[in-house]
Amino acid sequence: MTHAPARPRRMSPAEVRARLGEPEAVIEAKIRDRIDDYFRLFIAHSPFLTLATADASGRADCSPRGDYPGFVKVLDDHTLAIPDRPGNKIADSFRNLAENDGVGLLFLIPGLREMLRVNGRGYPTDEPDVLARMRTEARTPELAIVVEVEQAYFHCGRALVRSRLWDPASQALAEEIPPIGEIAAAQFGLDIDPELLERTLQDSYRKLY
Predict the structure, then answer these.
(1) Residues 33, 40: contact at Cβ < 8 Å?
(2) CA distance 101 to 95
(3) What is the crossing angle of helices 180-188 and 194-206, to 10°?
(4) C-alpha to C-alpha distance for 130 and 114, rounded to whole angstroms
(5) CB under 8 Å to 126, separation ≥6 — which residues?
(6) 58 and 66 in contact (C-beta within 8 Å)?
(7) Which among 98, 114, 95, 116 is positioned nearest to 50, based on CA atoms?
(8) Helix (H) / strand (E) containing 82
(9) What CA–CA distance (Å, rounded) separates 60 from 135?
(10) The whole model's pTM is what?
(11) pLDDT tens digits, one per residue of 36-58
């Protein structure tokens, strides 16, 4: 008879707080309820963010979003707009927003250790004036996600320092992972040459615009 492995102990919020201690007042004071000039500058230079959403049951999803620096537009001090560029069309984020409009964003700038976190409420839009501001290479997105900002603050760079994410030497780690074409062929049981699949994927990347 086999037994399921025991799961690690679940801690209560009170236990977690007791273990971590209370945050310093200056840490809580840095949280803003709007996009100030420094946040605007950061967003204008950021080519990449992660978008976290969850459905009505709390099942979470985190998706990457990227484009030219400044692809996210600041509509006003309390509102952002994120273009929906061509992707896999699974639309996890849109499905979640229909059930639960809470969103969390994490902006990064290559080479910079600090990050920008933005939390708020989101919804999809096809407002022509908003989409027109996101036009690139003669292409306008079909949709955008509007984020009504509730919290915005800079996050310290400890995680990026520990991960050495921007260290060129860390790129050698990519060489230890099989090509994505080989992985896809194995996962999906495809009877196709992995190198041909890899070339097809790389061609699709080159056709982004």
Answers:
(1) no
(2) 10
(3) 120
(4) 29
(5) 142, 143, 144
(6) no
(7) 116
(8) strand 79-83
(9) 30
(10) 0.87
(11) 999 999 999 999 999 999 999 99
The residue with greater pLDDT, 89 or 148, is 148
- Give yes or no for a contact between 153 and 166, defined as CB atoms under 8 angstroms apart: no
CA–CA distances in Å: residue 192 to residues 26, 81, 183, 198, 206: 57, 40, 12, 10, 21
The confidence band for 144, taking pLDDT boundaries of 50, 70 and 90, is very high
Residue 1 has pLDDT above 70, yes or no: no
Cβ-Cβ contacts under 8 Å for 145 (sequence gap 6 or more): 51, 81, 82, 84, 93, 94, 97, 103, 122, 123, 124, 125
Domain ranges of the chain: 23-162, 177-206
What CATH class does 23-162 carry? mainly beta
For residues 60 and 194, give the distance between their C-alpha atoms in angstroms, rounded to a whole number: 32
Q: How many residues does the chain have?
A: 209
Order across the sheet with 73-76: list the strands: 60-66, 48-54, 102-108, 115-125, 144-155, 79-83, 73-76
Half-sphere exposure of 42 (CA within 13 A, CB side): 23
